[in-house]
Amino acid sequence: QLAGVIPTTAGFAWAGDTVGAFLFDPRGTQVQGDGLTGVFNSIDPGDNASWPNGAVVRDGSIYRDVLLGRNSISQQDSWVRYWEGDPSFLSGRSHPMGIAIEQRSLAWNYPTGNEDIIYFVFTFYNVTARSASGVYNNPTIVPEVQAEIAAIGDRFQDLNEARFGISIPDGGYDIGSMYAAFGMDADVAVFSTNYSTAVLPFNIGTTYAGDFLPEVGWQFPPDVFGAPFAAAPGFVGVKYLRSPESSPGNFVGLTMFSNTLNAATGFPDAVGVNQLYRYLSGFVGPADNACNPFTNPAQARARRLCFLATNQADSRFFQASGPFVLPPGEARTIVVAYIHAAPLGGPLAALPGGGIGGDNPPGVPFTGDSIAQDPGKVRPIDRVMGWVSQQDLDGDFEIEERGDSGFEIQTAPRSLLNKALVAQAVYEAQFLLPFSPSAPDFYLVPGDNQVTVVWTTSPSERIEPGGGDPYFAIASDPNSPLYDPNFRQYDVEGYRIYRGRTAGSLELIAQFDYAGTEIVDFTGGFDYGAQCAPELGITAGCPSADFANNPVPHDLLGNVIQIPPGGRVELASGDVLNLQADTAVSGGANCGSPTGLVQCPELANTGVPFAFVDRGVRNSFRYFYTVTAFDVNSVASGPSSLESPRVTKNTIPRKNAPNLSAAVLVSAITGDDDVPLDPTTPWDIDGTTGRFTGPPPPTSAIAGAFAPLVPQLLPGLDLTATIDSLVPRSLASTDPCVAFNALDICYDMYVTFDNGGQITRFKVTEPWGVWSAFGDAALIETGLGALPISADSVSATRFSIPQGFAQFNATVSAKLREYIRFSSFENHHARRNLTGNGAGFSVGGSRWFSGADETLDHPTVGIRVGTLPGTDTVW
Question: What is the pLDDT of residues 31-51, one digit of tens each?
Answer without folding.
Answer: 999 999 999 999 898 999 999
